[in-house]
Amino acid sequence: MVGSHGKKPIWWTRLKLNSDIDQRSLKNHIVDMKNLENIRGSRVYGRRQGKPLRKASQDRLDKYFPKLNIFVKPTEMIDPFVLFDEKPDDIWLEIGFGKGEHLVAQAIAHPNVGFIGCEPFLNGVSGLIDHIDREKIENVRFFMDDARLLMDALPDRSLSRAFILFPDPWRKKRHYKRRVVSPGNVAVLSRLLKDDAELRIATDHHDYCRWILARLLENNDFDWKNDHPDDWHKRPADWPETRYEIKALKAGRKSAYMTFVRKRRP
User: Fold this and answer.
1) Domains and CATH numbers, the chain
2) Catalytic residue among 145, 146, 168, 204
3) Is 168 labeled as catalytic in the residue annotation?
4) pLDDT tens per residue across span 245-263
5) Above 50 in pLDDT, residue 20?
């Protein structure tokens, strides 16, 4: 986001985008991020950059970013199926993909599905691109900004599945409004998901787990898929692990795996 003194964000200066991209439109896109301040309680917060990228990763970022990044103009609606070289059968969305391990594993397992990942963290996007380059994956696109901008630009019933895996719990009470699982974001996901589509959420934070269950169960559009009391403590076989889950297990923290199903509309 452009600062109050007109300075460009760090990742803008590091991208060194190829000359064939419309840089003016990208600058306008960044400036328009200020409008996010009007989305109270429904923003998707996340840090923007960590350690400087290695040259090889920076080169891959420069190569793939113009093709794989999704640009959203204000008030513009997007047809997610046209984002891919070959039209996919379904669209799946992951909000906050970390460095892309889960997203890539799902993309490999489901080559006929178009995957969209949202992640504002430059180093995370770089990690995803490293996976994409190494595995030669064609069915992944990403949005490197606040996920709500993209979500608000997608049409109704456009998603067949969505993932929110190990999001920041924002432990302090004054930061609860920053939690990605909020009434506003749940309402938007309800609009985007097709009937019977799954919303998968995982966390290793007990208080946030209770919060997530409360937010989803207070929304009448979702059912909690829980056939046995131990179901939500066992990661399903088709649910690849993430680096955050591994970190939690090493620290002795148990994770909760929750699956919610979008109810059929009348």
Assistant:
1) 10-262 (3.40.50.150)
2) 168
3) yes
4) 888 888 888 899 999 999 9
5) no
